[in-house]
Design a protein that fits this description.
single chain; Arc Repressor Mutant, subunit A; two-stranded antiparallel ribbon
Length: 122
């Protein structure tokens, strides 16, 4: 919705977001339905209704609040602290392309790889 209002059209918002005009419209409609209110005036140029302006202010404030919170909290982990990462890979990918991609990603990194096989029943 923010992009649509900033771009003042469904078409320009879709272009900026790299999605279709219909996808922009559907997302706004779903948001309006979940909030039980109309957020935008569907005319040219596109404009926010009161509820849309309230939501837009909130959306624009989120990155600022997030940055402030992260700065206040500071880093919790040491820059080079070990990190555990679980990756699920199917047998076909593991037998073909995945090992090469993993090797390239981990080049020069100190890592310990643990292989664990899990079978899932149907």
């Amino acid at each position: 919705m923010a992009q649509r209002l900033e771009q003042q059209s469904f078409d320009r918002a879709a272009s900026v977001l790299s999605i279709t005009r219909g996808a922009v419209s559907q997302r706004i409609k779903a948001l309006e339905e979940s909030l039980s209110t109309v957020l935008v005036k569907r005319e040219r140029p596109v404009a926010a209704k009161h509820a849309g302006e309230v939501l837009l202010r909130h959306v624009k404030a989120l990155p600022i609040l997030e940055g402030s919170a992260l700065q206040e909290l500071g880093p919790t982990a040491k820059p080079h602290a070990p990190v555990s990462l679980a990756i699920a890979v199917n047998a076909d990918s593991l037998a073909t392309w995945f090992p090469e991609v993993l090797r390239e990603l981990l080049m020069g990194q100190l890592v310990a790889l643990v292989h664990q096989h899990a079978s899932f029943g149907t």
